[in-house]
Structure formats: structure tokens, C-alpha cells
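Review form for a predicted model. The reviewer records the input and the model, then writes brief findings.
Reviewer: anonymous (R2)
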Amino acid sequence: MTTEFLDWPVYGLSRADKRTQLGAQLAALTAHHDAQCVPYRRILHARGWQPAAPQALESLPWLPVRLFKMYELRSVPQDHVFKTLTSSGTTGQAPSRIVLDKPTASFQTTALVRIMQEFLGKARLPMLIIDHPGVVKDRASFSARGAGILGLSNFGRGHVYALNDDMTLNLEAVRAFAQQHAGLPKLMFGFTFMVWQHFLLELEKLGEPLALDDAVLFHSGGWKKLEALAVDNAEFKRRIQASCGALRIHNFYGMVEQVGSVFVECEHGHLHAPAFADVIVRDPLTWSALPAGEQGVIQVLSALPRSYPGHSLLTEDLGTLLGEDDCGCGRLGRYFHVHGRMARAEVRGCSDTHANPSSAPA
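Model under review:
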């Protein structure tokens, strides 16, 4: 396996080039995990997978993401484990546990940097984190929220947390941040429901508008609770901009099982696959790959995971492939829409685990 994928243009590979180059990386990763992870090998061989067979992206074997809640799947010796990530778990449901060695952690950091620089540029910006500081205290074993915050923190400086440890709004800190950086580019990050529940609604309740027109807000996760409140992406953006000014807002789709391979929303509201990752939408009855325009179950592919077999995962989310290489924003690659969780799939999301101020952080 090589690391050349880290040098690919993030949104610049055409369909033919990407299928050839990413396909080769993913086939090599499948063979690697087959050799190094005994449970994964058993699954592959039970499904009749043949290492020497040609592998189109659609024919690569996948794992249900739920397996990471049930088993520790790793392709490195225990003494090579550098960091363990955990997803948010619901009552009675174990979280996913993802083991990273140093190379995989480095790949994920580099990939995330390259993606985010496409939207932010290379300068580190003053950063407002819409969470509380305690969520990143244990750097050896992160929750999905902690990992997300730490990853995005690399793009900011002078970090300010918008919330207190009890999840109340630290209005004094938020006001000072807006005033200190008035008229300057700045970065904001938080998980979607946290931004809505603990930041925006509090600002609206207090009647406290903020001048954050030159900011860019990245947010992700927690849409299920907002959908129950009849709040869609357009309404979320409208309300944030009404309270905070004409800031840029980008949702992104990602998961702890494939940290680093994030799918960021462009200016046209479409989620985009970077060069070193991809998305396939599958029919939930036949599991065949669906064409653009048809709703099915999302499969995510990534060239990053070396320490665990997370390079081809079937999620529990429903989505629709919208197109490839032809989005109006000019970025190449597949772009898609996420509809939400499948029926009877447990609620999971980095911010869904904080239902009230007294809950323990994810």
C-alpha cells in the first residue's frame, strides 16, 4: 500500500481517474485487513471473497458499521494502538470502539486538513467552539464529539468555548469573541443539535444578536432531533444567520468509524466526496448499487484506515446520490444528500447524546 492518495487533488480527480486510483488503494486495503484481522478475514471468506479477483468500487466487500459496537476489529498488534475513539452510545447500546495506530491517526489528520483548507484557506482563524472545554480532556480515549472538536481545533487559534461545563451559554465569552474579532475572518464549530439547542435558542431567548458576519460555521450530526422539531437545513441556516449575521454555514457528514473522511456541504447544499473517499447508495432489499436519484442505504469508502478494517462500511443512514463531476460548485467527485437514519436503527449522533444540561458528555 502507498500513501500517494494524500497528494491527490481533493476535489480534482475525474470519475475515471478516481475509480482507477481509489479502487487500487481500497483493494490493497482489503487484502491488508484480510491478512491482519482474523475476524475480518472470517467474514470475507464466509462471503466468498477472493483476494485475486478484480474489484470495482461497487463490488468491494463492506462491513455493517454496527459491528464496531459488538467487536474490537483491529489490524495492528495491541502494543501499536496509539489512540482509541468511541462513538456516542445510547442507553443499553455499547459505543463503537475504533483503534488507531500512529500512521492511521496521521493520515486522518492530513486528510482532514486538506479537505478543510479547500473551504477555509491555510491561515488559522480565531475559533469559537460551541461546546464546553471538558469534552476534550482525555486525549487518549476520545468520544466522537471530543475527536471532532480536537480535529477542527487545528484550523483555529485563540480558541474560545461558547458553553460552560453545565452546558449553559457563556454569553460573556461569546460577546467578547465577536467584539475582539469584529470585521475579521473567524471559524465556528459545533455539533448541529448543540448549536441549535444550547447556542442559537439561548441567543434568541435573550434577544442577543451577534455580529459574526465574517465567520464560517461548520457543524455536523444531531439532525434527528431537529427533524422532530420540523427544522431542516434551510431553516437552520436562516435562524443562525438571523441571530449571527450573514456568516457562511457548511454542514458535513462523517462518523467516528471513518474519522478524516468527511463529506462537506458545498455552496449549493450538496455533500461532496473527496478524492480519497467515496460514497455508494445501495438498495436495502437487494444491496445492489443504485443510480443517481434513487434513495437507499449509504456505504462509505475511505483510503485512510490502516489499523482497523473501516475502509468500506455500510452505514445505517439513508441517502440519495445526486450526481458525479457535475455539481454547480465545480468540485469533481460524487455528491449526495442524507435523509436520516433508517427505521429501527438506533439514534446515534455526536450531539444526540446530550439531551439535557445534566447529561454526561458523550
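Findings: The chain has two domains: 4-76+270-341, 106-253.
Further findings: The chain has nine helices and 15 strands.
Recommendation: see findings above.
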